[in-house]
């Protein structure tokens, strides 16, 4: 009997409304991080593919930007209506891309759908954002907000559907056309998402191109027809984009990494704070989120007690469940790709030199899932906590992007602020306290683009999300995707 080999499915670039292979027909393997196995193939694009994608977006710009804001809003609203129909499929692709354990209703119906709706509503507001000024007795001035043209969105591997949505929705609402470049580690969900959107939008308005950043990144960023770039990613990628954009001096949006403090005062609700710090660094994304609360600052009077309670909760049977990331009974997935897995493992080794391990530290599917052979080659890392006596160690200063946290003691509010700000990053912070005055003081004094009090990682369409310092600048909001024009009209003949 001849054994039948299952053919690996291929996904394609989306250019000018069509599914197309790379110009050379070359492909890359996409790896399921829970198993370590190839599950699909994606295009390995070239500069020729870049030219096709950007040209398609540029050709589509005039017609798309000429639509009324109401007409563009209708398109975006119809996308929001459509998302639930593809929820299970998109969720499957996302989790096999990056290993996150995702709730379909919360992630797709609440977050992504609402972003498209919010962008649709924002489109109609752009015309009202200008100002009118009387200039003497015979002239007046006013301002207009206009789209840039072709906007390039560069996505990370940890949250491709969310970052795709928040970049594309507001750029399109403002009248721009879009080219999306997903990470080579997690492109599948974005390619399928682009295919779905292209069925709704006019030809060329949305384009998705897969490839290595080292091969096509500079060509995309430096392309003269690309008028603005938005990146969610690392500092190193941001520096490369900045260098590549110098020749055309285009505006940039950078949402980068973080080493975010999660600060617990002695007057906090302990149960809420413990649940908050666990969710902020361990579940469901294994700490692979830019706003992860990776530094847990605890007031010294409750330091030992709270660490003991966190340990007890994390080691309760069933508190952490590994396995199929499509099964929401499981609470934590793997590290999203092999290079990142090796990086996280190296920080666990470093942490044992710099601090005292409280719990965790084990790695590998063969260790954490020996009874589930399909996962033994996956990139699994156990939730890990280190106690340290100083914020100066590398595990306190460097972004790890994995389920590894450090617990740092502090005595006073002023010291908590000093430690919180003692980092090159400034993306997010959490504060747990019952003192309203302290909550407001901490919000004011922490150098961070987002501060959450008695909650953590509350993001979505309601508020902008951006960083300070090396965490970047700019936000994926509709005003950021418009440029302001000043106009003057003389009303008297002279």
Describe this structure in words.
The protein is α/β, with parallel strands linked by helices. The protein has two domains: 9-256 and 473-485, Aldehyde Dehydrogenase, Chain A, domain 1 (3-Layer(aba) Sandwich); 261-463, 3-Layer(aba) Sandwich (Aldehyde Dehydrogenase, Chain A, domain 2), CATH 3.40.309.10. It is built from 15 helices and 23 strands. It has helices spanning 47-66, 69-82, 87-98, 104-123, 160-173, 188-198, 213-222, 235-245, 270-281, 303-314, 338-354, 365-368, 394-397, 413-421, 436-445; strands spanning 9-10, 13-15, 18-20, 27-32, 37-43, 132-135, 139-147, 150-154, 177-181, 206-208, 226-232, 252-255, 261-264, 295-299, 356-359, 384-387, 404-410, 425-426, 428-432, 450-453, 468-469, 472-473, 482-490. A seven-stranded mixed sheet has the order 15-16-17-14-13-19-20, sandwiched between helices. Strand 13, helix 9 (270-281) and strand 14 form a beta-alpha-beta unit. The longest helix is centred in the N-terminal third of the chain and has 20 residues, at 47-66. It is globular, with a radius of gyration of 24 Å.
The global form is globular
Q: Please state how the strands of the largest beta sheet are arranged side by side.
A: 15-16-17-14-13-19-20
- Major sheet attributes: 7 strands, mixed
Question: How far is the first residue's CA from the last residue's CA?
Answer: 95 Å
The oligomeric status of these chains comes to single chain
CATH architecture of the largest domain: 3-Layer(aba) Sandwich
Low-confidence region ranges? 1-5
Q: How does the helix and strand content classify structurally? A: alpha/beta
Supply the CATH class of the largest domain.
Alpha Beta
Mean residue pLDDT: 94
């Amino acid at each position: 009997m001849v054994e039948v080999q299952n053919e690996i499915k291929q996904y394609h670039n989306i250019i000018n409304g069509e599914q197309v292979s790379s110009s050379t027909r070359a492909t890359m393997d996409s790896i399921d991080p829970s198993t370590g196995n190839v599950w699909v193939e994606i295009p390995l694009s070239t500069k020729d593919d870049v030219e096709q994608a950007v040209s398609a977006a540029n050709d589509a710009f005039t017609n798309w930007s000429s639509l009324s804001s109401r007409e563009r809003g209708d398109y975006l609203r119809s996308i929001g209506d459509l998302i639930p129909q593809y929820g299970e499929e998109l969720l499957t692709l996302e989790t096999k891309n990056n290993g996150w354990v995702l709730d379909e209703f919360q992630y797709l119906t609440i977050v992504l759908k609402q972003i498209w709706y919010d962008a649709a509503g924002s489109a109609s507001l752009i015309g009202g954002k200008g100002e009118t000024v009387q200039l003497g007795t015979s002239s007046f001035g006013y301002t207009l907000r206009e789209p840039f043209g072709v906007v390039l969105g560069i996505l990370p591997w940890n949250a491709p559907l969310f970052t795709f949505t928040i970049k594309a929705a507001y750029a399109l609402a403002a009248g721009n056309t879009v080219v999306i470049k997903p990470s080579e580690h997690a492109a599948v969900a974005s390619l399928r998402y682009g295919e779905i959107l292209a069925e709704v939008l006019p030809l060329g308005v949305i384009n998705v191109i897969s490839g290595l950043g080292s091969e096509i990144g500079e060509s995309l960023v430096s392309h003269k027809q690309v008028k603005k770039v938005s990146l969610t990613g690392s500092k190193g990628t941001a520096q490369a984009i900045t260098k590549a954009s110098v020749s055309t001096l285009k505006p940039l949006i950078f949402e980068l990494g973080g080493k975010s403090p999660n600060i617990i005062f002695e007057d906090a609700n302990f149960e809420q704070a413990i649940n908050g710090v666990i969710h902020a660094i361990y579940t469901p994304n294994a700490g692979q989120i830019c706003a992860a609360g990776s530094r847990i600052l605890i007031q010294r009077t409750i330091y030992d007690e709270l660490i003991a309670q966190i340990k007890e909760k994390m080691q309760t049977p069933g508190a952490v469940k590994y396995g199929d990331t499509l099964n929401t009974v499981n609470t934590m997935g793997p590290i999203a790709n092999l290079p990142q897995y090796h990086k996280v493992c190296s920080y666990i080794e470093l942490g044992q030199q710099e601090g005292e391990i409280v719990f965790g530290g084990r790695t590998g599917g063969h260790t954490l899932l020996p009874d589930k052979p399909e996962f033994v080659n996956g990139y699994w890392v156990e939730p890990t906590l280190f106690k340290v006596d100083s914020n100066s160690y590398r595990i306190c200063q460097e972004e790890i992007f994995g389920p590894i946290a450090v617990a740092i003691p502090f005595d006073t509010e002023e010291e908590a602020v000093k430690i919180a700000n003692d980092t090159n990053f400034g993306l997010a912070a959490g504060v747990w306290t019952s003192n309203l005055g302290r909550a407001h003081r901490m919000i004011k004094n922490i150098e961070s683009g987002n501060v959450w009090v008695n909650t953590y990682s509350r993001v979505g369409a309601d508020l902008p999300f951006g960083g300070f310092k090396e965490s970047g600048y700019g936000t994926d909001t509709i005003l950021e995707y418009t440029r302001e024009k000043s106009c003057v009209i003389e009303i008297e003949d002279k």
